[in-house]
Design brief:
single chain, alpha/beta, Alpha-Beta Plaits, four-stranded antiparallel sheet, 14 helices, globular, disordered N terminus
């Protein structure tokens, strides 16, 4: 069955240039790849400049055009790269407005020696096989009732979101990007909003950037969960789905580059990952630049922390999940939520599947320096939200847990858990904050704001989760490697972020 799609958008900031090529794209050895060019000024330097209160650029975020002027090659050098690619018989598919990456198609054998012969090329992504990313969701069961699982109204009350709506904020004017893979049913997303009376009703579209993605039932369940739950929290927002046609290192890089180039969304949700130990060094370097660029552009990347606890590979070893362990993203862990029938508030314990731990390669970022001597490297997650499948939430999707490889004829409510339901609800919350900020000023990277605030007064802004474990780590008073600072106290945290 083919998914229904609507409202496809072409990226307005990408120019399309097709050159004559000496090799057919249909040949078996023809590959699509991304040529990454060397930066004149590093993305890390730009990220530091917008997060350092003493910098003249503090919270004055960069546009792709500015990045081109500051960090991209000169126009003359860039044109020489294009001309050389043309002389090599390469098809130019698209160019980043930063002039730091070029998507191409060519014969694999001709590209393998290209990097060494072009001084401005830092890397070429897409020439080798890589680990596929996995969705961080746990599907419980397909149901016929519309009251199965934890309902949206319960979530909004438990986490203090209702008070934000009463103040008049719905996420109006805000944009959320869903970073994902493969095709999906966009009509299911809109049906979810209608069935749950999500008003005024988010606007959802798909942005095409690296081909037409094929349909996969499991991927579609992930994509639709992310879009439905982020929009459920921020009903006035616009949601843009960037679904890569290729689930690989190159596909991941192309996806995030397209989102940064587009630059509408200051919130990105990503509910996919792999083990840190599986990621090749060159791809880590590529993603380091991507996530530093996100900080430089004022974009929060909200990433599900994983669903296998502290053991990413489930082989008895303690391994971090990537990219949720990256220091320039916000990692969202999971809790088991039990709503109080009288107050509507929730008690929470750590969900045993919540990804969390410490990186084997990234040192502790400055915002984590106050966590104690034991935190020598980047530790995660940063925050948490309901994620236990036992307290799962219903989505409206074409999915049958008993036959996961084939989409059923009709959509139905399916109760889902995993940190994939936690991250998009945090994304929706940040859209509410974005609407409320004075003069539309972008908040920027969340972690340097919440870490000092929570250190000073965690109980005002977060529900501290102090029991449960994810295997190697246990929840405790204060920050921990299972739930971070805990789940949001929506009203007070909203006020902090609105006024910061």
């Amino acid at each position: 069955m083919e998914p229904q799609r609507m409202s496809f958008l072409a990226l307005p900031v990408l120019s399309l240039v097709v050159l004559s090529i000496g090799v057919s794209a249909a040949q078996a050895d023809s590959v699509q790849a991304v040529v990454n060019l060397k930066e004149r000024t590093s993305m890390e330097a730009l990220a530091r400049s917008v997060t350092d209160p003493s910098s003249f650029r503090f919270r004055e975020f960069y546009t792709p055009k500015e990045i081109r002027e500051i960090a991209g090659p000169t126009d003359a050098d860039y044109n020489r790269v294009l001309n050389q690619l043309k002389s090599e018989g390469v098809q130019i598919i698209s160019e980043s407005p930063t002039h730091l990456s070029i998507t191409i198609r060519a014969e694999r054998s001709s590209l393998q020696s290209l990097q060494g012969r072009m001084a401005l090329v830092s890397s070429i992504s897409g020439l080798r096989a890589s680990h596929a990313r996995h969705p961080h969701l746990k599907i419980m069961n397909r149901v016929t009732r519309d009251d199965a699982g934890v309902q949206p109204a319960t979530i909004r009350t438990a986490y203090g979101i209702d008070s934000i709506y009463k103040a008049g904020f719905t996420g109006k004017g805000q944009n959320i990007a869903i970073a994902t893979f493969d095709g999906f049913y966009i009509d299911d997303v809109n049906a979810y909003y209608t069935k749950n009376n999500i008003t005024p009703g988010p606007i959802v579209d798909q942005v095409m950037f690296n081909g037409t993605p094929t349909f996969n039932a499991g991927s579609a369940a992930e994509t639709q969960t992310d879009a439905e739950f982020s929009g459920m929290i921020a009903p006035g927002a616009s949601i843009h789905v960037f679904a890569s046609a290729e689930n690989s290192d190159a596909g991941e890089l192309a996806m995030f580059t397209a989102i940064m180039d587009d630059n509408r969304s200051k919130i990105v949700n990503y509910s996919w990952g792999t083990c840190e130990s599986n990621v090749q060094a060159d791809h880590k370097t590529e993603m380091d630049k991507v996530f530093a660029r996100a900080v430089a552009q004022g974009i929060n990347v909200m990433i599900a922390s994983g669903d296998s606890g502290s053991d990413c590979m489930q082989d008895g070893t303690t391994v971090a999940d990537f990219p949720s362990v990256h220091p320039n993203v916000v990692a969202v862990g999971g809790t088991t939520m039990t709503p109080d029938a009288t107050t509507g508030l929730a008690t929470e314990t750590a969900w045993n599947g919540s990804g969390g731990g410490m990186s084997a390669s990234y040192p502790a970022p400055s915002y984590q320096k106050g966590l104690g001597a034991a935190i020598t490297n980047r530790a995660y997650p940063d925050v948490a939200f309901n994620a236990d499948p036992a307290s799962g939430q219903p989505t409206w999707i074409h999915y049958d847990p008993n036959n996961p490889d084939t989409a059923p004829a009709d959509a139905a409510y399916v109760v889902i858990g995993g940190t994939s339901i936690a991250a998009p609800q945090w994304s929706g919350f940040l859209a509410l904050v974005g609407e409320a900020r004075a003069s539309g000023k972008t908040l920027g990277f969340l972690n340097p704001v919440i870490y000092p605030a929570a250190t000073a007064n965690q109980s005002q802004y977060f529900n501290d989760v102090t029991s449960g474990s994810n295997g190697a780590f246990s929840a405790a008073v204060g920050w921990d490697e299972v739930t971070g600072w805990g789940s949001m106290k929506g009203g007070d945290l909203f006020t902090l972020l609105r006024n910061n």
